[in-house]
Amino acid sequence: MTSSEVIRDGSPLRVEEYEGYRVLVADGVILSVAVTDTDPPFGYWTAMLPEGAPRTALLLGLGAGTLAHLLARRFPGIRMVGVDIDSRLIEFARRHFDLALPNLEIVIGDAFSYAAGCRNQFDYVAVDLFCGHAFQRGAVARPFLRRLKTLAEPFGEIAVNLFRDRRSEVYVGRLARVLTIRRVERLVCNVVVHCGAGQ
């Protein structure tokens, strides 16, 4: 452990080493991993990457920026907006996980409120809304999913990260009622669903 700090809910944030990678851990959960020259061989982040070559991205649930770093490395010049509600986590990530990407605009705020008020459209929208182990169920609510359709360009891609448990297939079904499922990646601990806005 190289550093530790308490975030808003009282859970300590720690920087640790895992399989040779520097990771951000809170409440026993790896929230993010520092991106090096190679993709992390664990976790769900590479499964979140889009199939196309997006020019713009909205990241709802930025964390310490693992996905932002992967996108910036693969798609130089991509313009990204990253939204996260936890200002202390973002400050911790700025110090330990290099969030100073020139093409990343960071918004501290509630992802649902941001999505409701956003008037821009994006080629790629990533939904990664967890508080520790707790999935934010509003991410699969019909009003939010309809809003995601509006935020995505007509041929854009929406990637949703779910925790793999007894409810994950129910959530995939909810996504399918509003969005077009393009592919589902079932990992050890996560289910990543790639969707399109069209029906």
Q: How large is the count of helical segments?
A: 6
Question: Major sheet: size, sense and barrel closure?
Answer: 7 strands, mixed
Q: Percent range for helical residues?
A: 25-40%
Mean pLDDT comes to: 91
Query: Class by helix and strand content?
Result: alpha/beta
Strand content: 35-45%
Number of strands: 13
| Total domain units | 1
| Stretches with pLDDT under 50, minimum 5 residues | none
**Overall CATH class:** Alpha Beta
Output the CATH homologous superfamily.
Vaccinia Virus protein VP39
Strand order of the largest sheet: 7-6-5-8-11-13-12
Gross morphology: globular
Gap from first CA to last CA: 47 Å
Radius of gyration: 16 Å
CATH level 3 topology:
Rossmann fold
What's the CATH architecture? 3-Layer(aba) Sandwich
What is the element string, with H for helices and E for strands? EEEEHEHEHEHEEEHEHEE
Description:
By secondary structure, the chain is of the alpha/beta class. The chain has a single domain (40-196), classed as Vaccinia Virus protein VP39 (Rossmann fold). Helices cover 26% and strands 37% of the residues. The protein has helices at 45-48, 66-74, 87-96, 111-117, 142-151, 168-178; strands at 3-6, 12-18, 21-26, 29-33, 56-60, 79-84, 104-108, 122-127, 130-131, 134-135, 152-163, 180-186, 190-196. Strands 7-6-5-8-11-13-12 form a 7-stranded mixed β-sheet. β3 (21-26) and β4 (29-33) form a beta hairpin. α5 crosses α6. The chain is globular and about 40 Å long. The model has no long low-confidence stretch (mean pLDDT 91).
